[in-house]
Amino acid sequence: MAEMLNQNFEAVILDMDGVITQTARLHAKAWKKMFDDFLQSRDGADFKPLNLDKDYNTFIDGIPRFDGVRSFLKSRNISLPEGGPDEDGQEPSVYSLGMRKNEIFLGLLKKEGVHVYEDTIQTVKKWKKEGLKIAVISSSKNAEYILDSAGVQNLFDVRVDGVISEKEGLSGKPAPDIFLEAAALLGAAPEKTIVVEDAIAGIKAGKSGGFGLVVGVARKGEASEMEDAKADIVVKQLTEIYSSNK
């Protein structure tokens, strides 16, 4: 681990939800509420609820919102129209389900607030002192609001979020587009850049993008899955990556 970190890295790109902010849990809670309500209204008492360990981690976590809707529906062999802002909302669609999930998430965010992972903030500050350039990425269109609410927006030189991804036509994870865009904006070569992720889709994106080091943060105990996805380092807290240098 120490040998890897002693390489001449120029930049770090961190995912936001679950790495920097403690919002991944709220996202999961919102997805479950939205889909369970939809499935129950569709299938009645026989509905099969969304399983956070299996369904959420496999089909939803780490990817753009509407891609997550499509992915989970496909896993259940459910076909819905795409819909859009002009629909009447009477019939469910990919768009209406995605917007409902966001509505639930924002409600939870307002109620519970935004908290950060101190291990990440401590490590980011260490990297900044060492002269590394720092970017935050997120598939969320709420990223700017969340970072501002947490008071950590100023720690990052670059932010690439769901708003920018849509504007630039970037493909969602596991495609590496969002990481490559962040590296380009930082002026850093991928092979000289560290990627920090808590989602399997993000780890796969970092590996396929040719980044120099992909770190998996297994806060929920998913270390083996991250290792299977070829993460170079897997830790429970980000400060652990320096533990072998003590």
Model description:
- The structure is a single chain.
- The protein has two domains: 2-22 and 114-245, Rossmann fold; 25-112, DNA polymerase, domain 1, CATH 1.10.150.
- The protein has a six-stranded parallel sheet.
- The model has no long low-confidence stretch (mean pLDDT 92).
- Helix 2 (24-43) packs across helix 5, helix 3 (52-60) crosses helix 4 (65-75) and helix 4 crosses helix 5.
- With 246 residues, it is an alpha/beta fold.
- The protein contains eleven helices and six strands.
- Helix 11 links the parallel strand 5 and strand 6 (233-235).
Q: Count every beta strand, where a strand is a DSSP E run of 2 or more residues.
A: 6
**Could you give the order of strands across the largest sheet?**
3-2-1-4-5-6
CATH architecture of the largest domain: 3-Layer(aba) Sandwich
Q: What is the count of structural domains? A: 2
Number of DSSP helical runs: 11
Gross geometry: globular
**CATH homology superfamily of the largest domain:** HAD superfamily/HAD-like
Q: Which fold name is given in CATH as the topology of the largest domain?
A: Rossmann fold
Helix content: 40-55%
Low-confidence segments = none
Mean of all residue-level pLDDT scores: 92
User: What is the CATH C-level name of the largest domain?
Assistant: Alpha Beta
